[in-house]
Design goal:
Length: about 120
C-alpha cells in the first residue's frame, strides 16, 4: 500500500507547488478534498487523521487549528507556515543546521519547514 499524503491547503500557491513536485512519484498516493470539503472541519479532520503525512500549506492560524484536528499519533506533519518554527515540540526542517539534524527530521512526527 502506498503512503498517503494530504496537503492541507493544496489549492494555494505553496500547496500547488508541492503537489506538482510530487506529481511524478508513483510510490505515493494523495488524499484530496474538493472545493466544498476544504472548509468542512469534519472532512479535513478525516483527511488529516487518515494520511501518513500531512503537509500544512496554510496561514499560521489555520495551521495551528489543523494541528488540533489531528488525533492519530502516527501522522507525520510538515508545516510550511511560521506557526511552529520556534516551538520546542517541533523539529526545524533545516538539515544543514547541525550534524544530527537529518536524523531528527527523519524521526520527528512534527517538522517545521524553514521559510525564505
Amino acid at each position: 500500500m502506498k503512503p498517503e499524503i494530504f496537503i492541507d491547503g493544496e489549492a494555494g500557491t505553496t500547496g500547488l507547488v508541492i503537489r506538482e513536485l510530487l506529481r511524478e512519484r508513483s510510490d505515493l498516493s494523495f488524499i484530496s478534498l474538493n472545493a466544498a470539503e476544504r472548509k468542512d472541519v469534519t472532512a479535513r479532520r478525516n483527511a488529516l487523521n487518515s494520511c501518513k503525512l500531512a503537509v500544512l500549506c496554510l496561514p499560521d492560524e489555520a495551521a495551528r487549528e489543523a494541528i488540533t484536528l489531528i488525533e492519530n499519533p502516527n501522522v507525520k506533519v510538515i508545516d510550511t507556515s511560521t506557526a511552529h518554527r520556534v516551538s520546542p515540540k517541533w523539529v526545524y526542517g533545516f538539515p544543514e543546521m547541525t550534524s544530527g539534524q537529518v536524523e531528527l527530521i527523519k524521526k520527528s512526527k512534527r517538522v517545521a519547514n524553514p521559510g525564505c
